[in-house]
Amino acid sequence: MDVPFEPWSPDFVADPYPAYAELRARGRAHWYAPTRQWLIPHHEDVSALLRDRRLGRTYTHRFTHEEFGRTAPPAAHEPFHTLNDHGLLDLEAADHTRIRRLVSKAFTPRTVENLVPTVERLARELVGGLVARGGGDLLAEVAEPLPVAVIAEMLGVPAEDEERARLRPWSADICGMFELNPSEETARRAVQASIEFSAYLRELIARRRKDPGEDLISALVGVEELTEQEMISTCVLLLNAGHEATVNTAVNGWWTLLREGVRPDPEKLSTAVEEILRYDTPLQMFERWVLDDIEVGDVVIPRGSEVALLFGSANRDPARFGPTADVLDLTRAENPHITFGAGIHYCLGAPLARLELTALFGEVLSQAPGLRLAAEPRRKPGFVIRGVHELLVEV
Questions:
Q1: Does the pLDDT at position 242 exceed 80?
Q2: Considering the domain boundaries, does residue 313 fall inside one?
Q3: CB–CB of 144/380 below 8 Å?
C-alpha cells in the first residue's frame, strides 16, 4: 500500500496535515522506500522514541559505517560532516554529556533573564522600523534579524565584522543538508558555507584567546575539555538552532494569524506562543538511528534502520490534543507539544526562543495592530524546515 507521504510535492509541503492524519489512522510505523526510513506519526511514539537510548542522532560512537550497514559520506562532503558531527545535536554518550554541561551554562534561567532587556529593545526597534516604513517583509526585516543579533551578541561576534552579515546565509546553506535526500548543489553550498564559517570562527577564537571578553566564545576558550573543532561546531549549532526555529515560528505564526483573522490576547501571550509552536511546527521531522532493535506497535524495526519522527504529525495528534487538534486555539491550556524535542537532545535554547517569540509577537501586536498581508507568501520547497521566502505586510 502506498504511503501518503510526498515530501517533494508542493501540495504536500503546503499542507501535510491531512496526510499525517491518514498515516496515524493506518498505523504506528510506515516504511518509506524513497528515503529508506520508518515514518513515526503518533505523539506517544515520537515522544517515547526521543527518550529511548536505543536510538541516537549518530551511530559512529558504537559502530563503523560498514558494521551499521551504511555507506560513508562522500569525501567531497567532509567539511560539512566535520562541522556537523562535532556539534552537540549530533553527538551521543559521553561527548554529548560533556559538551552540553559546558554550553548549558550560557542558557541558565538567570542568563536568559538577563537577556530580556536586550531582546525586548531589539524587537521594539525592528518592529518600529517596519511600522515607520509602512510595512515590508516581516521575515527579512524583523523575524530574521532578532535571533541572529541575539546569538551574535552571545557569541561575541563584533558588530563591525563584515562576516556578521553572512551568518544567516551561511546558516541557511548548512541547514539545506537537513532536508530529505539533498541535491549535490545543496551539498556543495553547505560544504562551502562550512569552510567559510569555520575559518571565520577559527580566526575569532584566536582573537578571543589574546583578548577575551564577556561573551560565550571567550568563556569556551578557557575550557580545556573542549577541542577547537568542538568549539567551532558548537558555535555554528547555536546559531543554526538558535534562529532557524524562531524565524520560521514567527513568520508561519503571523501568516496563520493573518489568514485566520485572529490575534492573541497580549495578557496571555506565552500561552498563544506555545500554541503557535504546536499548530504549524517549524521543524517537521527529526531523524534517529536505531542502535538496537526496537518495536513500534507490531512492527520490529531492526538495528541499522533510520526512523523519521514526524513532529508535525505528533503535534496534531487527537490522541494527545483531543478533537480540536487541528484547530488553532490561542488559549489552549494543556499543550505538551514536542516542537523543542525531548530527552537528552531537548532544545537547549528553548527558553531563549520563547523569550524572542513573546517579545516579537508582543511588539507587533502593540505597534501594528492593523497588520495585514500585502501579498500571498511563497512557501519554500523544503519539507523538514517549514518556511516561506518572504512575508510582505502592510501596517
A1: no
A2: yes
A3: no
Number of domains observed in the structure of the chain: 1
Residue 24: C-alpha distances to residues 39, 154, 351, 365 (Å)? 10, 41, 30, 36
Residues 254 and 138 sit within 8 Å (Cβ to Cβ): yes
More confident call, 348 vs 273: 273
Q: Which DSSP helix (H) or strand (E) runs through 201?
A: helix 184-210
Instruction: Summarize the confidence of residues 360-379 as an average pLDDT.
Output: 97
Say how far apart CA 275 and CA 253 lie, in whole Å. 9
Using alpha carbons, select from 156, 103, 111 the residue that is nearest to residue 355: 111
CB 106 within 8 A of CB 156: no
pLDDT tens for 194-231 read 999 999 999 999 999 999 998 889 988 888 888 999 99
Per-residue confidence band for 254, with pLDDT thresholds at 50, 70 and 90: very high
- Write the CB contacts of 110 (distance below 8 Å, at least 6 apart in sequence): none
Interior/surface letters 281-299, b for 16+ CB within 10 angstroms, e for the rest: bbbbbbebbbbeebebeee
Q: State the amino acid at position 122 in one-letter form.
A: L
Q: 3-class DSSP state for residue 135?
A: strand
Residue 4 lies in a domain: no
Pairing of strands 372-373, 135-137: unpaired
Cell numbers describing residue 345? 537532545
Compute the CA torsion angle 181, 191, 68, 50 (nearest 10 deg). -70
Within a domain: residue 213? yes
Say whether 283 sits in a helix, a strand or coil.
strand
Neighbours of 221 (CB within 10 A): 18
Q: How far is CA 391 from CA 130, 162, 189, 286, in A?
A: 12, 26, 25, 26
Report pLDDT digits (tens) over 11-47: 999 999 999 999 999 999 999 999 999 999 999 999 9
CATH number for the domain harbouring residue 31: 1.10.630.10
What is the DSSP code (8-state) at residue 74?
A: P
Question: In this structure, is residue 305 part of a structural domain?
Answer: yes
Rounded Cα distance, 291 and 306, in Å: 9
Q: How many residues does the chain have?
A: 395
- Structural domain that includes position 240: 10-394
